[in-house]
Design brief:
Number of domains: 2
Largest sheet: 5 strands, antiparallel
Structural class: alpha+beta
Helix content: 10-25%
Radius of gyration: 18 Å
CATH topology of the largest domain: TolA/TonB C-terminal domain
Order of helices and strands: EEEEEHEEEEEHHEHEE
Number of strands: 13
CATH class of the largest domain: Alpha Beta
Number of helices: 4
């Protein structure tokens, strides 16, 4: 089975610049990441963690990436930058308004086999809405109909279905919950950046 290199970002943010007076909850939060590239033959071993700065735009996309320390391979650094530019964050907020900023992060590197689940989601603006949807699910309401009606993500147009996803793409609080999810089960509302999300593991479509 293929082994993939992941940057396991767990409480890894260590500051932003220029300095802004924002709370931890208003700082950028990693929502979704793609794996880092495989090791080139020119590198025998990568460091156990990486330290870098990303410029996160108001829409949560990554525009620029700067490594604090090179891996020792220009080839790997370039491929890693391309992968990290595919990551998605919740944007930083100041006085409830999103703004673009540089942000430093430091995170351990980890090899893992892909863990692919077919998932559906309901993304909610507030915890109150997510809690009410979770209660409706417990009462037997259909996940797909609730996603179509209440989700703020574009997946609502597909009844919440997002397809097959490697759970390692998600931050730790979501990743650990999804690992224990059986087919047809759904999660409690989970904090996801500035919003809350409910996931359901569905049967793989052929």
């Amino acid at each position: 089975m293929k082994i993939i290199l992941w940057c396991l970002c767990t409480a890894c943010f260590i500051g932003c610049f220029p300095i802004q007076q924002i709370s931890e909850s208003d700082a950028p939060q990693l929502l979704f990441q793609s794996p880092l590239p495989a090791l080139p033959t020119s590198i025998e071993k990568l460091p156990s963690e990486i330290s870098l700065a990303v410029f996160v735009l108001e829409n949560g996309t990554v525009e620029q990436v700067r490594f604090s320390k090179s891996s020792g391979s220009n080839e790997w650094d370039s491929l890693a930058v391309s992968a990290i530019k595919q990551w998605r964050f919740s944007p930083a907020r100041l006085n409830s308004k999103p703004f673009s900023t540089w942000y430093h992060l430091r995170a351990p590197l980890h090899y893992a086999s892909p863990l692919l689940f077919s998932l559906a989601e309901i993304l909610c603006v507030t915890k109150e809405i997510a809690d009410s949807i979770y209660e409706a699910l417990d009462q037997g309401k259909e996940f797909s109909k609730l996603a179509k009606q209440y989700s703020i993500d574009t997946s609502r147009d597909n009844h919440g279905i997002i397809g097959e996803v490697d759970v390692y793409c998600y931050p730790e609080n979501i990743r650990s919950t999804l690992k224990g999810l059986d087919i047809e089960d759904y999660t409690k509302p989970l904090l996801y950046g500035n919003h809350y999300v409910i996931f359901k593991r569905i049967k793989k479509t052929e």
